Amino acid sequence: MARNKYPEKTVEKILEVSYRLFVTKGYENVVIQDIVNELGGLTKGALYHHFKSKEAILKALFEKMCSEHNIVERAAKYPELNVAEKIKAVYMDSCYDEKIREFDIDTLPLVLNPHFFANFYKFSMKMCAKQFMILIEEGIKDGSLSVDPLYIKESAELFTLLTKIWLLPNLLDESLEEQQKKIDVVKMVLDAIGLPLFDEKTMYMVRHYMELFYKADEKRGNTV
Questions:
Q1: What is the tally of structural domains in the chain?
Q2: Between 176-192 and 200-220, two packed helices, what is the crossing angle to 10 degrees?
Q3: Residue 1 belongs to some domain of the structure
Q4: Residue 210, H or E segment
Q5: Cα atoms in the Cβ-side hemisphere of radius 13 Å centred on 68
């Protein structure tokens, strides 16, 4: 693995190994040397050439995830639909996407780590909400969303907060039934601010997705 000749492959390998170690050992339990040991000959100096710290690696992983799952780009695959329908279609696709589902389930335990959670929150509210702002603006123009134009940024952040963080099933010691009730509340809040995105079909899929998290956690021998 030649650092200078194929830098993009080196970066990809570092991120791949780091992600696997973070998931299997826990973010706080991984040190840079652990990552180096799994890189097949890459020196610590070479790793530091690309990433100055473990936190820089984590940030790059978040950015990679955001790029791969860019909701604006994914929504553009449905040019025949209005924005509200595009967003629903993207969420339906996500529920059926095995790679996305595996990523979400694998990283769920990491959210309990304060450092990881802080970065996840910052990443979500800055990068994901920014993408959603673009769709809200387009949805206001095509009439499928009725968000007050004065509060586009705040509405995008609230949507992100509710769907990416508040619905995380392991933040609080709650039963599946309690989590399912939250989905009803999310629908009420989104409808109230002009984001009618949780119809009957969407809610059914979100509930099913939530059940998968609980089943995965049961297999680990934990209670969510």
A1: 2
A2: 150
A3: no
A4: helix 200-220
A5: 11
The model's pTM = 0.83
The answer as to whether 103 is a domain residue is yes
The parent domain of residue 187 ranges over 70-220
- CATH, residue 13: 1.10.10.60
- Distance between CA atoms of residues 12 and 162, nearest Å: 31
Residues 7-32 have a mean pLDDT of: 90
Q: Would you report the helix, strand and coil content of the chain in percent, each value rounded to 5?
A: 75, 0, 25
Residue type, 107: T
- As to burial, measured by CB atoms within 10 angstroms (0-12 exposed, 13-18 middle, 19+ buried), residue 190 is buried
What six digits make up the tokens of 115?
């450092």
Report d(CA 175, CA 197) in Å as an integer.
25
Q: Encoding tokens for residue 188?
A: 């009420």
Q: Does residue 159 register a pLDDT over 60? A: yes
- The CA radius of gyration of the chain, in Å to the nearest whole number, is 19
Task: Please give the single-letter amino acid code of residue 79.
Answer: P
